């Protein structure tokens, strides 16, 4: 599937983005179970034949959207860090937490986490993406001698981070991304002196 994606033309990529955007907006408006392929193609202003060039059905589109956003969450969190370099948490500023800005820029998608009738299994994706990132690529230097690199602790961090982000979404993104990033950094500073990206 990944190889096929690389071969798509810019126009095909744009068409797929429009289908995903239309799908996301429709779920926000009427709920996942009430969105049909007809709804998607009408909103995106394409015909059904174009939809079926890229997707087998609504579930195929759903899986691609989920996978793409899951990977983007992980990629965005890593972009500014050099593997092997140690980072002091005191040197971090609100621009150091790029995941928050990414979520804000993709509010339409992340608002799906707040809906009762949403993409099946979506609720698990944000904490799982954050956990995999922390578990596979971050080694923390603790304040004190406690172990903050166990899988259990990183799972706790992932769910706590996801919870704060979703609380921000639920409150209508009243705080700026910089404010939310600053809060998350202060929490991290309370437990870690620094970290290294593997």
TrEMBL record:
Organism name: Planomicrobium soli
Keyword Secreted among record annotations: no
UniProt xrefs under InterPro entries: Homeodomain-like_sf (IPR009057), HTH-type_Tx_Regulator (IPR050624), HTH_TetR (IPR001647), TetR_C_Firmicutes (IPR039532)
Keyword Metal-binding in annotation: no
Origin: domain of life: Bacteria
DNA-binding region: 36-55
Protein name, per record: TetR family transcriptional regulator
Pfam family of the protein (one): TetR_C_8
GO MF term set: DNA binding
Cross-referenced PANTHER family: ACREF/ENVCD OPERON REPRESSOR-RELATED (PTHR43479), TETR-FAMILY TRANSCRIPTIONAL REGULATOR (PTHR43479:SF7)
Record SUPFAM superfamilies: Homeodomain-like
HTH tetR-type domain mapped to chain residues: 13-73
Keyword terms, alphabetized: DNA-binding
